[in-house]
Design a protein that fits this description.
This is Bifunctional deaminase-reductase domain protein. About 25% of the residues lie in helices and about 30% in strands. By secondary structure, the protein is α/β, with parallel strands linked by helices.
Length: about 190
């Protein structure tokens, strides 16, 4: 059975964006170890789940990276992987998804997610998309949480785990510290 894994950048005080949605702190300490983590995460998957906001951000940039003059070869290879993946966008308002291999679903169906996990193939991943993470956490459908804790304290902002309906017990299964000070914490449901 395929695993459903999520990854999210988060500050030390638990925010995924500042009070005005700012995420400038992410690129401030990006290093080769982060690049390797991101590439490994995407390489182990063939299906990407996204919310509308993350879809708009990704679809507005990744399809164009391979044709960008002077683009970093590692970024081009990463973009090609994202572009080739099956993408499922959960949105009540998005009319259509033009990015290669993308479909739009109006709501999350637990039975359809379970069916997706039973299909042959690589892992299913969620990048960003806090509302999708929250909904799937409430449904108990996420098999692995990857939290990339950045050494910043914002003091206020958008929390990752808002609207969680009941306590979720997790167990730490691994951790890695990057030279930048980012700590990747790997959790599975207990």
């Amino acid at each position: 059975m395929r695993k459903l894994k999520m990854t999210m950048w988060v500050t030390l005080d638990g925010y995924i964006a500042g009070p005005k949605g700012e995420m400038d702190w992410i690129g401030a300490i990006y290093d080769a170890a982060m690049g390797k983590y991101e590439d490994d995460f995407v390489s182990a998957a063939d299906t990407l789940l996204l919310g509308h906001t993350t879809y708009d951000s990704f679809a507005g940039s990744w399809p164009y990276v391979p044709d960008r003059p002077g683009a970093d070869p590692n970024e081009v290879a990463y973009a090609k992987k994202l572009n080739a993946m099956r993408k499922i966008v959960f949105s009540k308002t998005l009319e259509k998804a033009d990015w290669n291999n993308s479909t739009v679903e109006r709501e999350i169906s637990p039975a359809e997610i379970e069916k997706l996990k039973q299909e042959p193939g690589k892992d299913i991943i969620i990048y960003g998309s806090a509302s999708i993470v929250q909904a799937l956490t409430n449904l108990g459908l996420i098999d692995e949480y990857h939290l990339l804790v950045h050494p910043f304290v914002l003091g206020a902002g958008k929390p990752l785990f808002a609207n969680i309906e009941q306590r979720v017990n997790l167990k730490l299964v691994d951790s890695k510290t990057h030279p930048s000070g980012v700590v990747v914490l790997y959790y599975q449901p207990a």
